Amino acid sequence: MKLKKELGLFDVFAISTGSMFSSGFFLLPGLAAQYTGPSVILAYFLSGLLIMPAMFSIAEISTALPRSGGAYFFLDRSLGPMMGTIGGIGTFIALLLKTAFALVGIGAYASIFWNIPIKETAVVFALAFAVLNIFGTSKSSSIQKVLVVGLLVVLGAFIVDGFWNIFSDTNASIGFNKNNYTPFFTGGFHGLIFTTGFVFVSYLGLTKIASVAEEIKNPERNIPLGMGLSLLVTGLIYVLGVFVMVTIMGNEALSKDLSPVATAAQQLFSWLPAKTGLYIIVIAALFAFASTGNAGLLATSRYPLAMGRDKLFSKKFSKISRWGTPVPAIILTASLIILCIIVLTEEGIVKLASSFQLFIFMAINFAVIVFRKSKIASYDPGYHSPLYPWMQIFGIISSLALMLYMGWAAIAFTVITVILAYLWYMFFVRSKVKREGAIYHWFALLGKHQHDELENEFMMILREKGLRQNDPFNQTIVRSQVHFIDNASFEDLVQNVSNSIAQELKVDRTSLNEEFLKTTPIEPALLIPEVSLLYAKKLDINHPVLHIVLCKKGIEKQIEIHGKINREKIKIFFFLVNDENNPKQQLRMLSSLIDIAERDHFIKDILSLKKAREVTEYLLHDKQYISFPLTKGEPSHIFINKKLMEIKLPQDVLVVFVDRDNSSFAPKGQTVLLENDVLTIVGEPKSINKLYDQFIIQK
């Protein structure tokens, strides 16, 4: 069972942004200022810049492979199951730690006003968010959006009021004091770089989106746009907010304060009743920690789900409930988060989580290089990382440098985690998993073997993503030529169709014939009983060309399934030719033809048709076309004796056929429509439904 695609652009923004505003803003500025002083502002800025390579890389892979599991799935499919196991288990642990820390923050800030136990409160919230996640991603993300909106409003007010008090004369006790910035680097260059790595954890929520990519609608747009907006907003609030704290409090006070935002707020909001500003900030902190805890549980639970699917964990964790959520994975994640809350402390968690995530980001940046170099045809990202491969190389080098500055304890944690995950792979996973990563396709270019099943899997993912908005699929169907034949040999059929297409495109027919007969690694993904899809690419053709051949008796063709060669009778052939410069579009169009061929009763239905127009209409049928006659006394009479260009139709529809006197033709703007003509119109479903209501239902 698949996860539901319920998350839109604002959900992506809310999950990503809500995962970052907790410890990064409300706790870490004071801790970080101990190591570098006022330049903590610069450390936050540098961290935001240095996470960009990983963000671009994750956005590219997520739009190509929108699957739950995030870093695990990316590393498994690029570098193989061993690195997938290491990355998956390690990232799962790191996210568990960060989520547990966020939930502890709820108890810590709540205890400012209420006499409640911190850790017990965190456990209660962990259980509450687990229940929320079990009953639906959309419910969880709806709460997330409310939390994030409230949080952004309060933090925006904190920054605006802070700048107003600093740069105006309304509050004599607050102003821009240069002494608060001297010295700017209290720990020198080493202190700045260490602090940059230390606060790196503040931005880790940015990459949690990859874990829920499978549940995002229109991922090719919403993932990169949502992540980019989230980084922009979060980076601005971090830098401006920390500037306000440093300016108001000074470095000495800031570096000793574990709740610097609350302390700064007591000197702001003078236009509100006493302590109101403090109450507002505490509420905002609770929103922040709650949103991070909720988003963290949502994203982290997708790791055991994905690893269960791939047999790296028990298959029980891959089960999807009737609510469309992975209940066993959520229960496991919530249980481990509660364990972390009970037994661990806070500051060390931040260092450990940051260090291992830097290691993962190095691997993910390398994964993009592997996917590109592997030349896998069905690797089809809707977003491409800019400045490839230099962006990825910079990301690898900068992440390694930050890791080295984090200290031996953090490096030791990373090494131990890698060793434990490797042992898990050796003794539990290796005997169950036989696939290899995309890196073997790269090796294949050097004469090594590759794992063809990967092409097959990526093609299946491509099918699920569907066509892009500008893919000329409907136009290609409309222009297609349909051939009805009684009998022929397969070789003669391919030669005849090749000759016809070659004449139409003015290309070499021999090479076209050879390409139609050639097999490729994605061939297994295109196998459908009694249907054959043959495809070719030619340089600089104006538009895709499709020929459809229908033969009720069937034509014998050699088919290879799992290494065994059989001969099967094929009744429907699709011959598709695309521009060589756009191979990914060809795969998307092939996948759409497969979707059509997998309709119920497809073979019986299409073979019962007698005319080319009927075949075209059948292929287009998906609320995207309509046919009706022009008849006097009916609503359609308004078209009779008018030129096509004079008819008012919605902008997103097109008259593709006119049936007249038992023949069909494609009309032009000057074509005069006559009584008893049958119009076939294709377009967007919303407009087609309007035409259906106007000219068919009202008849």
Description:
By secondary structure, the protein is α/β, with parallel strands linked by helices. Helix 7 (81-110) crosses helix 8 (118-134) and helix 7 packs antiparallel against helix 14 (276-300). The chain has 3 domains: 14-168 and 180-359 and 401-407, Amino acid/polyamine transporter I (Up-down Bundle); 466-616, Mannitol-specific EII, Chain A (3-Layer(aba) Sandwich), CATH 3.40.930; 623-697, 2-Layer Sandwich (Alpha-Beta Plaits). It has helices spanning 9-18, 23-26, 28-36, 40-50, 52-64, 71-79, 81-110, 118-134, 137-167, 188-198, 219-249, 251-254, 260-265, 276-300, 302-309, 327-343, 347-374, 390-405, 408-429, 439-444, 453-465, 473-479, 490-505, 509-517, 583-597, 602-607, 612-620, 685-697; strands at 481-484, 531-538, 545-561, 564-579, 625-629, 653-660, 663-665, 678-683. 57% of the residues lie in helices and 10% in strands. The strands form 2 sheets. It has a 4-stranded mixed β-sheet with strand order 1-3-4-2, sandwiched between helices. A 4-stranded antiparallel β-sheet has the order 5-8-6-7, with helices on both faces. It has 28 helices and 8 strands. The longest helix has 31 residues, at 137-167. Residues 613-697 form the RCK C-terminal domain. It is a multi-pass membrane protein. This is Amino acid permease.
